[in-house]
């Protein structure tokens, strides 16, 4: 009588059967055998034919999936070992860690692509109707530096359907007028404005009416490179800025930096700034060193013309509540003699320093939630 057929869990599968069930090729299965990642249950000593247990199909499927997303072999082997002994949680932790690396790598790749596109724009920039102004390197670097902290972090994120496009907030607004160049940055919770006086101007291409301002949003990487180049020069070195609706260029120390503008409309920062930061300013000297660390909000109160911390357990005494980390960053670029304008618990807090720039912070609720 013929021997009874082996039941499915007990029988061994050929390499072809495992290939069909797992999505791996036979050559890939041989490779993973040689690497010790997926070793067959049996290898014929004479023919070299590989035979796999039915239970190994699951491992082969996992292997195929993990290799498709680029997981290194050593980590794949760890996942398969943990899964084989029933430690699915430990296996999932390895997979989750690899996923996070992919997310971080994608963000780095996108940033690198933006830098590459900016470099390509420097090679071949079109010259059209523009405003060309000249500023001093030290003052332009200071203007960029005074607003850098307020740029929205991370990758551009579009707003809700029908709402504002927030991708422009990952860039920096450059506004060129007859008397000054303004740099503006905002992440919706804070806004910073810096400026550099214009020491000369000319027209390239079509004219821009006197008194009008030409604006463009530039990638923050470009602004950083321009600021670094300015810091490498003497403070009074002249820097030429060319601004058009499509491109912005800066000539610093004989080197050209050019970039395409970030598409989208930057929010009307003047509506937030209002009358400016000079009204009712109170001395905030020494406040930065007093700010607590690790709290969601801090209360501020004006006493005898000086800004002081409100009692930590009495929010009702405070004139305004703000994020202490954001305030710390704003005071850091405000210099040694900062002043603050507190217009009430629901109005932005204005911070002015001894340099050419100021910033505003949105107030927060007692639990740290921003309105």
Would you kindly provide a written description of the structure presented here, covering whatever features stand out?
The protein has 10 helices and 19 strands. Helix 1 packs across helix 3. A hairpin with a 7-residue loop joins strand 17 (339-341) and strand 18 (349-352). It folds into 3 domains: 12-87, Multidrug-efflux Transporter Regulator, Chain: A, Domain 2, CATH 1.10.1660.10; 125-271, DNA Polymerase III, subunit A, domain 2 (DNA Polymerase III, Chain A, domain 2), CATH 3.10.150; 274-361, no CATH class. 32% of the residues lie in helices and 25% in strands. The strands form 4 sheets. It has an 8-stranded antiparallel beta sheet with strand order 9-5-6-7-19-18-17-13. A 5-stranded antiparallel beta sheet has the order 8-4-10-11-12. Mean pLDDT is 80; it is low at 1-7, 122-128, 156-164 and 206-211.
What would you say about this model in short?
This protein has 371 residues and is of the alpha+beta class. It has helices spanning 15-22, 26-34, 56-68, 73-84, 88-123, 137-147, 220-231, 269-273, 287-290, 324-332, and strands at residues 12-14, 42-43, 50-53, 130-136, 171-176, 180-186, 190-197, 200-204, 214-219, 238-243, 247-252, 255-260, 282-283, 298-303, 306-309, 320-322, 339-341, 349-352, 357-361.
Strand content: 25-35%
Return the CATH topology of the largest domain: DNA Polymerase III, Chain A, domain 2
Number of strands: 19
Mean pLDDT: 80
Continuous helix count: 10
Give me the side-by-side strand order of the main sheet: 9-5-6-7-19-18-17-13
Total of domains? 3
Derived from helix and strand composition plus strand pairing, the structural class reads alpha+beta
Please, what is the oligomeric state? single chain
Domain HTH merR-type: 12-82
Protein name: HTH merR-type domain-containing protein
Keywords: DNA-binding
Organism: Terrabacter tumescens
